[in-house]
Amino acid sequence: MHKILLFMKRRPDISVEAFRDYYETHHAPLAAKYSRGVTRYIRRYIDAQPHPETGAFTDGPDVITELWFADEKIFRATLAYITTSLMPDIIVEDEKNLFDRASFRIATVVEQETDLG
Q1: How many whole angstroms separate alpha carbon 16 and alpha carbon 20?
Q2: How far, rounded to the nearest angstrom, does the alpha carbon of residue 108 sit from its chain's CA centroid?
Q3: Residue 62 — very low, low, confident or very high, per pLDDT cuts 50/70/90?
Q4: Fewer C-beta neighbours within 10 Å, C or N terminus of the chain?
Q5: Which InterPro entries does the entry mention (predicted)?
Q6: pLDDT of 51 strictly over 90
Q7: Strands, DSSP E only, in the chain?
Q8: Contact at 8 Å (CB) between 37 and 81?
Q9: Distance (Å, rounded) from C-alpha 3 to C-alpha 109?
Q10: Is the pLDDT of residue 102 over 80?
Q11: Which residue, among 67, 48, 41, has the nearest Cα to 9 in the 3D structure?
């Protein structure tokens, strides 16, 4: 599988509960309509925990969204698109209801797994 990770913060004026509810009931269904070739669309909501040495977790994302692709060509085309173009206006306008768009970070991932069994 090929994955694109989106690290995103909520707008500071929106509660965690309202952010998660809006994402699941409004934004995710809208985004799914524009997600051709995506095999899995996962949202991982962050419950920040303090670090034992440095204290509070204050600068991380509120959600890590994963876009999974079985087809490498579609993955590469999607990555090229989202790193060089704005999403359709309807998506951008909906994101403004939810996210601090300036905080968006995009990454791909190479996974390595250790067999613990």
Answers
A1: 6
A2: 11
A3: very high
A4: C
A5: Dimeric_a/b-barrel (IPR011008), EthD_dom (IPR009799)
A6: no
A7: 2-8, 40-45, 63-69, 105-108
A8: no
A9: 6
A10: yes
A11: 48
Q: Sign of dihedral through CA atoms 89, 83, 112, 57?
A: negative
Integer-rounded Cα Rg, in Å, for the chain is: 15
pLDDT digits 0-9 by tens, 41-50: 999 999 988 8
The CATH number fitting domain 2-108, selected from 3.40.50.1100, 3.40.50.720, 3.30.70.100, 3.40.50.300: 3.30.70.100
Distance (Å, rounded) from C-alpha 97 to C-alpha 2? 29
pTM for this structure? 0.88
Summarize pLDDT for 17-33 with one digit per residue, the tens: 999 999 999 999 999 99
Q: Which of these, 93, 98, 108, 91, lies nearest to 6 by C-alpha position?
A: 108
| Domain assignments of the chain as residue spans, ordered by start | 2-108
- Indicate the residue type of 9: K
Let me know: does 107 contact 7? Beta carbons within 8 Å.
yes
